[in-house]
């Protein structure tokens, strides 16, 4: 016998949810069927997603599409629009997966993953076209040079290849395990520089709207770990400014950045900084001051090396990582009045997954 407080409408709600699930799967099938023939072999249903992130936890994507060119992206956009999915199912762009926490239940929409065909790197002579042309590099030390980097290019690769070519200014990117497209999305940065300091122009494809095309950097309204790039907007390429300089000096700086990161930041399964730094302070300092360093909850633990990192065990649960994030955030808010803003993007958890930071911290054994 059901308790009196159970609503008689509950079965109808469950039936409605099942109907919505069935309708979503039908729409996804229409999307995949509408893909161009060249793209269809690179589309999968119920594909691993959490395993493609640096956390290595979380569930599957309802659909995953690998794109190797701008034409592939446009074909996917046409399929989303023609099937009506653009307004019915969520769309997510997956780069290197270094800033995502995917729910154990997965992501109930379409994930697009730019591939190696969108990872090219070319040089553009910005100030001395007579000394090298469009494909060359100026011989003058200190002369400005634009490089065009594909959105899927890894930032560490970008840093090393530009330095090897005698270009300086992007060394900071070597320590960030993301892609160029992800750098535009989050205004990635470190070691005194960020994407905003070098981005000149970019090209993107909006998978669900009328945006996209070529734009100047100002359109992105880049701020501290933020931008106006849409969640379903895929970066095709970005033009970044560098200067001609000594490769050995650049390599030495890269080695120093790598050494510093290995010394101060943990390895293992994590997504880098969990929270952004509040103005004039450090999120790691606040977490440590609140007594959270080393705290474990289930299969997740605040790093003992750096308190703004949360690490997941092999075979761990995304729910544990999220619960620990929530607990840490509430403890810091209770102790300092500072509500930390997440830097990690939470995927598949629904609205407001961290809840109200003003609530009392959960009971967690230290």
Q: In a nutshell, what does this entry contain?
A:
The chain is of the alpha+beta class and 366 residues long.
Question: Which characteristics define this entry?
Answer:
four-stranded mixed β-sheet, 3 domains, disordered C terminus, disordered N terminus, 7 helices, Uridine Diphospho-n-acetylenolpyruvylglucosamine Reductase, domain 3, alpha+beta, Uridine Diphospho-n-acetylenolpyruvylglucosamine Reductase, domain 1, 366 residues, six-stranded antiparallel β-sheet, Uridine Diphospho-n-acetylenolpyruvylglucosamine Reductase, domain 2
C-alpha Rg, in Å?
A: 22 Å
Helix content: 25-40%
Number of helices: 7
CATH class of the largest domain: Alpha Beta
Overview of the molecule:
By secondary structure, the chain is α+β, with helices and mostly antiparallel strands. About 25% of the residues lie in helices and about 20% in strands. The chain contains seven helices and 17 strands. It has helices at about 10-35, 70-85, 155-165, 180-185, 245-265, 285-290, 320-335, and strands at about 45-50, 60-65, 90-95, 100, 105-115, 120-125, 145-150, 165-170, 190, 195, 200-205, 210-215, 235-245, 295, 300, 310, 345. The strands form five sheets. Strands 6, 7, 8, 11, 12 and 13 form a six-stranded antiparallel β-sheet that branches. Strands 1-2-5-3 form a four-stranded mixed β-sheet. A three-stranded antiparallel β-sheet has the order 14-15-16, with helices on one face. The two termini are about 40 Å apart.
